[in-house]
Write a structure and sequence with these properties.
Layout: E1 2-6, H1 11-22, H2 28-37, E2 45-51, E3 54-62, E4 75-81, H3 90-104, E5 109-114, E6 126-132, E7 138-145
Antiparallel strand pairs: 1-2, 2-3, 3-4, 5-7, 6-7
Length: 146
């Protein structure tokens, strides 16, 4: 399993768009549109997990997530693992890869927004807040010190 950043001029960019459009997660379509528009700036990155040349999952490292008007930044976001790769701690591997990148560029903490319970806590994240997202759903904000 290889986890690596991708860029718009990389052949994996279009593969990731297609994968996101067809994945089982409802937010995949939104993520695919973000890739098509290449909204990522400065230090923001898209990471993919590849196994035997097959797309296994993806995530992003971004300034803002789905909760408007909060001071928290940066976020590990859009974390998705394909069904056939679940149960292999791939989410954790992607999160650890992104956290290493965050440390390299001098961030001291990272955040995750989620409605999952007892998922990110096992990776050392602590719930610090709850806010309404852009769809009017209550989401939890988790933080991990690097």
């Amino acid at each position: 399993m290889e986890i690596k950043p991708i860029f718009q001029d990389n052949e994996l960019w279009q593969r990731t768009i297609d994968y996101a459009k067809n994945c089982s997660w409802r937010a995949g379509i939104t993520f695919a549109k973000q890739l098509e528009q290449n909204i990522f700036t400065e230090w923001e990155k898209v990471f993919v997990a590849i196994e035997d040349n097959n797309m296994a999952g993806y995530c992003t490292f971004v300034k803002k997530d789905c909760i408007p008007d909060v001071e928290y930044t940066p976020y590990i976001s859009c974390i998705f693992v394909g069904e056939e790769y679940r149960g292999k701690r791939l989410s954790e591997k992607m999160i650890l890869t992104v956290m290493e990148y965050a440390k390299e560029i001098k961030f001291k903490e990272v955040y995750i927004v989620s409605d999952h319970i007892n998922l990110y806590e096992k990776y050392g994240f602590i719930k610090i807040d709850e806010k309404m997202d852009h769809r009017n759903n209550i989401e939890k904000i988790y933080r991990r010190i690097l």
